[in-house]
């Protein structure tokens, strides 16, 4: 079935003037890929992709020129949707909230423009949906920038910045060839796996971690849930990463259950011999499961990620 294409332009030359208007016309229970082409501009509006509005693609020309931004914080939410739909607190404060499955974004910036001082949690995007993919996108904020809450997600060639817990949640996510930028002291990840039976976790594969020029001021992560699982593999770490690497969130009991791993990372922030004793370097056999797309796409009979990668190029040409 051919994709349906909608266009958004603030100057009135598209089908719609706002991105939310385009999302609103997609039917609940949608089964047809709907591509929303977003013309360059800064779109200041909270966005919500509801449950069952599946198979939506947001496509821009470049992330620098196509910015979706809003300023909600956990303590102050201004949204066109009722709180009973989007939630409250950190859960409901995303500038963009995606709950429709099989979502794709390419060449888009997702931003929470709330200032660092006094804002606290301020999510740029919350993803509570399965089989979602982001290509060449930017995620901008300070605390809690990227909320990968639930489902399976793939991010490639993306830029993510923040300070405290700025990649967090309990999804199963693979971030490949991404640039992670630490704006100030804090923690990159806060993964919230709650039991050893859950298959969730974050894998950073062939990524780059940079900071603002300081030395040893940021942790690779801390466990929001007691079994939090994060893997950095073949990743460059600059000097902003603390030598200890990982933080137990003030709970020594987390040290017995958190699964924090590194594999063949490099750079001045990669210090395997100086890491906390309860995190470790993987051996080759242990690392294999985290180095392939099957970590987020385990069903060879229905490979969702291969399908996403096959359809993305024509839609953004």
UniProtKB/TrEMBL annotation:
Pfam families associated with the record: Pectinesterase
EC number of this enzyme: 3.1.1.11
Pathway: Glycan metabolism; pectin degradation; 2-dehydro-3-deoxy-D-gluconate from pectin: step 1/5
Active-site residues, as the UniProt record annotates them: 165
Domain Pectinesterase catalytic per the UniProt entry, residue ranges: 7-297
Record key words, sorted: Aspartyl esterase, Hydrolase
Catalytic activity reported: [(1->4)-alpha-D-galacturonosyl methyl ester](n) + n H2O = [(1->4)-alpha-D-galacturonosyl](n) + n methanol + n H(+)
Hydrolase in keyword set: yes
Similarity comment text for this entry: Belongs to the pectinesterase family.
PANTHER family, A to Z: ACYL-COA THIOESTER HYDROLASE YBHC-RELATED (PTHR31321), PECTINESTERASE 31 (PTHR31321:SF12)
The name this protein goes by in its record: Pectinesterase
Gene source species: Rhodamnia argentea
């Amino acid at each position: 079935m051919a994709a349906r294409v909608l266009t958004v332009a603030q100057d009135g030359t598209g089908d719609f003037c706002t991105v939310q208007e385009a999302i609103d016309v997609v039917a609940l229970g949608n089964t047809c890929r709907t591509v929303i082409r977003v013309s360059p501009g800064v779109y200041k509006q909270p966005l919500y992709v509801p449950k069952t509005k599946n198979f939506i693609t947001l496509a821009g020309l470049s992330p620098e020129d196509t910015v979706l931004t809003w300023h909600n914080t956990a303590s102050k939410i201004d949204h066109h949707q009722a709180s009973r739909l989007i939630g409250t607190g950190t859960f409901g404060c995303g500038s963009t909230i995606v709950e429709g499955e099989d979502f794709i974004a390419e060449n888009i910036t997702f931003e929470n423009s709330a200032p660092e001082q006094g804002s606290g949690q301020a999510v740029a995007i919350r993803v509570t949906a399965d089989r979602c993919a982001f290509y060449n996108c930017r995620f901008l904020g300070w605390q809690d920038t990227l909320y990968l809450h639930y489902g399976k997600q793939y991010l490639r060639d993306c830029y993510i910045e923040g300070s405290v817990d700025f990649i967090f949640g309990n999804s199963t996510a693979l971030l490949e060839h991404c640039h992670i930028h630490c704006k100030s002291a804090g923690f990159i990840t806060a993964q919230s796996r709650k039991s050893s039976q859950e298959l969730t976790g974050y894998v950073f594969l062939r990524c780059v971690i940079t900071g603002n020029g300081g030395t040893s001021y940021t942790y690779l992560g801390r466990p929001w849930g007691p079994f939090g699982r994060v893997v950095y593999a073949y990743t460059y770490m600059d000097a902003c990463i603390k030598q200890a690497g990982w933080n137990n969130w003030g709970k020594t009991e987390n040290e017995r259950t958190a699964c924090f791993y590194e594999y063949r990372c490099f750079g001045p922030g990669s210090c395997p011999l100086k890491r906390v004793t309860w995190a470790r370097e993987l051996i080759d056999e242990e690392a294999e499961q985290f180095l392939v797309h099957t970590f987020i796409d385990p069903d060879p009979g229905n490979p969702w990620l291969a399908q996403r990668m096959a359809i993305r190029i024509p839609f953004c040409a």
